[in-house]
Amino acid sequence: MNININKVALRWSLIGAPLLWQLMFFALPLLFLLVISFCSVQNFQLAADFTFKNWSTMLGRDTFWSAYNYTWALALATAFSASLFALPAAYSISFHMSQRMRTIAIILLVIPFFTSYLVRAYAWQIFLADNGVINALLSPLGFSTISMLNTTFGSWVGYLTLCMPLVILIQVMGMMQIDPSLIQAARNLSAGPFRCLFEVVIPSIKASLVVAWLFAFILTFGDFVSPTYLGGGASPTLSNLIIDTVKSGQQWPRAAVVAIAMIATLVATSLAAMAYAYKGKK
Amino acid sequence: MENILIEVDRVTKRFGDYTAVTQTSLSIERGEFLAIMGSSGCGKTTLLRMLAGLEEPSTGEIRLDGVLQNGLPAWERELPLVWQSLALFPFLSVLDNVAFGLKMRGVPKAQRHAQTWVWLKKLELEEFAHRNVAQLSGGQRQRVALARALVTEPKVLLLDEPLSALDAHLSVRMQALLRSLQRELGITFIYVTHSQSEAFSMADRVVVMSRGKVEQVGAPKDIYRHPANRFVAEFIGNVNIFKGRIEGLSNGVATLQTSLGRMTASIGDVSARLGAESDFFVNADQILLNTADYPGNSIKAKLLSYKFVGNMVTLYLEREGGEELKVTLPEPAYDSAGLKIGDLICASWPTVSAHLFPESH
Amino acid sequence: MIWKITRWGGRLYTLFVFLVILAPLVASLIFSFNSDRFPSLPLKEFTTEWYLLTFTDPLVLEALQRSFLVAIPVGLLSTVLGFAAAYSDYRYSFRGKNLFNLLMMLPPTIPAVIMGLAMLSYLSRINLAGNVYSIFISHVVISLPFAMALIRLRLAQMDPSLEEAAWNLQANSAQSLRYVVVPYCAQSLFAAFLITTAVSFDEFAVAWFVSGLEETVPVRVLVFLQGQVSPRINAIGTVVFATSILLVVLAMAVSGVGKSIRPKATDQ
Asked: Do residue C162 and residue B105 have CB atoms under 8 angstroms apart?
């Protein structure tokens, strides 16, 4: 049965190679993070002991909870607002554009997704600064300087820049799966465009809408760039908290606690969202 | 025994709860054109795939030239297959497609090319040799698939409904090509199809399958004249089936009481019992029309419609009780009969044209 | 009538949304040529001094070199592993397959900060942190899902009889992979390579955590940003953006993605 050994060997190396890599360099580091959260730091070194002190300290701190609530609220607001802003655009792209225009639109959406978010977020400073482009355009019209940088508004703008392309894309993908004859039927029954949207399109693509929302939430929940460079860092998010904790005195266990708390929140939110999206199906 | 090339021995194939092939046995001879025929889901493709090694039998054995094939992976067997979708490699030229099997066997390049060119010439594909397969027409792609399978000079060629996507005209031409190729090469062709006309026009022997079982094996003519059971008869389609009870048996003739009166049928090899409910059939081309005083089996039927197929006419009549009666006759005979739709016609046939079915399972 | 209004209103709105999305990129590009230190209107003189400064800064050049040095091997390994994972999902069934797929596809959903922290603490434990190897390892983990998703899409289009035909013609499992599956996926493999290279080239958060002193370009940008405001950032940003765009557009052209986006009813 020598011939079959080759077949088996191939199968296991194809499955095994990526599996091994992800286990060693993805699963284990995250597991390690969990372990660290129960260790203590002595003399700037990790000690191999087991303690709940990191957890009790962190979860007892006001700074932690204010950061948690702030991050949670901001991510929620971004996810919903992004989904809302994206909807008309996605609808237009899916149903009111020629094939060629649609392809161009999708390419334009994919490109920012793969380019430096860092630079894009930073570039918003050009627009939002007190002496930036927007204020420069508004002041001759008599408006006083609007403070947009270093505020929650700034963070929010940055977050939208991060997740909007993806949200639009996912919504478009969902809408393109709709049988166009459904819309045609609705029109024939004298449904106006808004009724059409709310009673035909949205229910059909509930799953895609939820997935788009979820991705927006996940991306913004963990982002540190926008709050730092556009939000001013005065009101830190959980990600800011992690970075500060690491930078000041190598307090990795405490940072790990924040990280685990974030992961738990994200997993719970994902499970809830997926359950809602696919409720009643299959 | 030396004439048997492939032995399928009580093979069963189960996919979970579903049994695709049940206890099937078959002996396939050297050099014959065998057609395996049936409607979808009858197991014919599964059987073919088991021969090729793409599926393993759940129970039973398959032997090629006496050598057990069970457990051998597909690439260790030498039963090339012509696929329904043709499965030509879209990224290779015609030449490279055809040469593929030789390359996998490690045949050196020069010899590979030479052998491939022989086949390209044989199937009139030389001018397309360096073209990509996507640029060819349906018929040309068929020939590439054939060449690719035959270039390795196998003992057997498997074909899985290769002509189903072709239009009727092209299909007929390809059937002629396949037949002449098989005769010329003298190798075994195993041809799976749902089309009765394909099977009957090309094959030496036909295997009729239904729901995982073999219903009948025989030459096309034998199956046509003597369908083994009701299923095969209905599948072939050119028979009229009657129900009756056997009232008398003598001299190879059974007398039956039917809803249309008393009729006679030949017993043949069937075991018949007095008093048993039995079906019998009459071939559509054995029925005579407009014979008022016929000393044999005779019924009255109303002409509903007719259809011209080539130079034959098929008449669809309704017999008493509403069932259909199908009659085929040559066009000149039809013309001279002067029939009109709605006519009440006398249809008759001699005893030798009616045959009993074996007891159904 | 109202449909017509919403049609054009929708298009206008979409245009506005796209403008807002692309605004920072365009602004960055414009102001990278502006002679004023602080980005504001009205524009001052056109100048290329920021680009000159950037390209003569040894730290930036070093970072650029390192970015490519890391990104290309990342692209190669991610594509190979991504192919292996995609093919395994396509062809094999095994226990725990769902978990396997989850493990492969999960990294993009973990916030970069957390990945950075996890990789930093783990890799320093096994003495691999603070150098290009740590960036390499982290980036492969992050870009593998993209390669896998892209190649899996292509495999889904493959006629299953193609591989069976190969086996039928005496190609064993390895040969059918080499002579049939890989050539069939060639375009997607190349596209996956380009995309994963781009992802690595752009990735800054995890790289920042694990790279220590051996910076890549985005990390250098990050360091810049923590310093004073400088229009050089616009210059670097534009260069990074241009490189990434080039890679992505190339990938899309190679894999023919644009042609495959079609609404359901007109599918052939």
From this structure: no
Q: Is the dihedral of CA B208, B210, B212, B215 positive or negative?
A: negative
C48-254, what's its fold? MetI-like fold (1.10.3720)
The whole-angstrom separation of Cα A244 and Cα A263 is: 18
Residue among B1, B54, B50 at smallest CA distance from B22: B50
Q: How far is A2 from chain B (nearest CA, A)?
A: 11
Nearest chain B CA: its distance from C165 CA (Å): 6
Distance (Å, whole) CA A219 – CA B323: 71
B73 touches chain A (CB under 8 A): yes
As for how many domains chain A has, the answer is 1
Q: How confident is the model at residue A44 (pLDDT cuts 50, 70, 90)?
A: low
Its pTM surpasses 0.90: no
Q: Cα(A158)–Cα(C113) distance, rounded to whole angstroms? A: 17
Average pLDDT, chain A: 83
pLDDT given for residue B291 in this prediction? 66
Q: How confident is the model at residue A281 (pLDDT cuts 50, 70, 90)?
A: low
| Domain locations in chain C as residue ranges | 48-254
Give the residue-averaged pLDDT of A94-112: 83
State which residues form the domain around A192: 62-277
Question: Which residues of chain B have a CB within 8 Å of the CB of C172?
Answer: 73, 75
Q: What is the ipTM of this complex?
A: 0.82
Contact A4 B73 (CB under 8 A): yes
C125, A32: Cβ pair inside 8 Å? Answer: yes
Mean pLDDT lowest for which of A84-88, A167-171, C21-25? C21-25
CB-CB neighbors (< 8 A) of B92 in chain C: 183
Supply angle C-alpha B232, B237, B238, rounded to 5: 115
Cβ pair C117:A88 closer than 8 A: no
